[in-house]
Amino acid sequence: MGTTHVTVTVKNPAARERVWQGEFLVATGAIESLVPRQYLEAIGVEPIGSRTYEMADGRRLQLDIGLAELEFMDETVGTTVVFLDDDVEPLLGLTALESAGIEV
Q1: DSSP state of 31
Q2: Which of 31, 59, 62 is closest to 47 using CA atoms?
Q3: Residue 56 has what pLDDT?
Q4: Which of 3, 22, 1 lies closest to 71 in space, CA to CA?
Q5: Which domains, from first to last, does the chain contain?
Q6: Which of 100, 60, 54, 51 is CA-nearest to residue 79?
Q7: Cα(77)–Cα(96) distance, rounded to whole angstroms?
Q8: What pLDDT is stored for residue 50 in this prediction?
Q9: pLDDT value at position 1?
Q10: Would you write out the chain's pLDDT as a tens digit for each of its 104 residues?
Q11: Residues 103, 84: Cα–Cα separation, whole Å
Q12: Based on C-alpha coordinates, what's the Rg of the chain?
């Protein structure tokens, strides 16, 4: 089984002209979409809170969350995004996929 990547444009919903585009790993095991903090901050997306998440390796981390629009595969969805360390690969999570009408 291989990995799938998709080009995603991340938009600040309060200033839609502020965008960042990158290659995201499609991660059906992740509920939320995860984006390196530097890119979210660059487009003005700010944390609105934090949540505890269990990572694939079993660690539990308290991470900041925010709201963004994600555009991929000719669909745009509003969703929660998780702020990650700058060196982590962006992940497109299950909530965004299902919101775009993609059955997983």
Answers
A1: S
A2: 62
A3: 81
A4: 22
A5: 7-68+77-99 (2.40.70.10)
A6: 100
A7: 7
A8: 98
A9: 58
A10: 589 999 999 999 999 999 999 999 999 889 999 999 999 999 999 999 999 998 889 999 999 999 999 999 999 999 999 999 999 999 999 999 999 999 87
A11: 26
A12: 13
SS (H, E, C) 38-86: HHHHHCCCCCCEEEEEECCCCCEEEEEEEEEEEEECCEEEEEEEEEECC
51: nearest Cα among 31, 70, 68: 31
Residue type, 37: R
Q: Which amino acid is at 2?
A: G
pLDDT of residue 49: 98
What pTM did the predictor assign? 0.92
55, two tokens: 């990572």
Q: Is residue 46 within 8 Å of 66, Cβ to Cβ?
A: yes
